[in-house]
Amino acid sequence: MPASANHATARILTGEKIVENRPQPSWRPGWVLLHAAKQIDRTTLREPLVARTICGRDLVTGAVVGLARITGSHQDPKGSPPCSPWAQPGVWHLVLDDVQELALPILIERGQLGPWRPSPDLVTEVLQQLPHLPP
Q: What CATH number does the domain containing 48 carry?
């Protein structure tokens, strides 16, 4: 069974969730670390789309579990269908690509929803598990 993040990040790691919803377009294209929250939202686990996506995965908490590349962001035009089953209406959708899952989650003290700068040591630990990626 793959070691994975909590449900929110696990959906990205499976490749099913290709957009991340954010209230503002304050993210630039580039690589971002994927980290699992410290707690699991058990109510969300009951949603069929979530349950189907994370089935068979262990849910890790409080750790960096992978990275993804933001390749763009957009809002769905008013009245149009969502760009993805995961896209929420009225918010910005960060387009995620090149998702890489870490074999060994890296425990962290804290993460946050907005952009944050990881320590050089954390970046080194991540890249040690993904030697095919350039530094």
A: 2.30.130.30
